[in-house]
Design a protein that fits this description.
Layout lengths: L25 H11 L20 E4 L11 E4 L1 H9 L2 E7 L2 E7 L2 E4 L4 H25 L9
The structure holds zinc ion.
């Protein structure tokens, strides 16, 4: 039997079924979708919706850590369901980025394109996304092309 008040459990968790989470902002979903070309970071699967855009879902590694890209995985519906419902173990991180895990004992390498170039690329991407978001709201004609 586990003792109460013992050593604290590791903060990072991958799934807490039934727990309600706030969806990430649209700007972050767009950034992640572009970064990963809509492909699942675990299995690489994607498909195009009727509107021609790739379908993907965003999983929070730790629901309490917010929407930082290190806390988010772009995944397909199948992998998302496994992350939420199956047994997830063996999570390995490099500089805060999840790089591998096991789902029901099956090893997955996590695609992390920002890991190689680090936080500089991430910062540039965020500036570009938020600059275009503000431009769409502040400039006459929104995101209409300049002629
Ligand atoms: Zn997948």
């Amino acid at each position: 039997m586990a003792a109460q008040g013992g050593s604290p459990a590791r903060r990072r968790v991958l799934a807490q079924p039934g727990r309600r989470r706030e969806a990430p902002p649209v700007s972050i979903r767009i950034l992640l979708g572009a970064l990963h070309e809509g492909r699942c970071q675990l299995c690489g699967f994607t498909f195009l919706k009727r509107d021609g855009q790739p379908y993907y879902e965003v999983h929070h590694l730790d629901p309490d850590l917010g929407h930082h890209p290190k806390n988010l995985l772009l995944v397909c519906a199948n992998c998302h369901a496994q992350l939420e419902q199956a047994t997830v173990t063996g999570c390995e991180y490099v500089r805060g980025w999840l790089v591998s895990l096991e789902i029901n004992g099956v090893f997955f390498s996590v695609r992390q394109p920002l890991l190689a170039d680090g936080d500089a690329l991430l910062s540039i991407a965020f500036v570009l996304v938020f600059a275009s978001w503000w431009a769409a709201r502040l400039l006459p004609g929104g995101m209409a092309p300049v002629r």
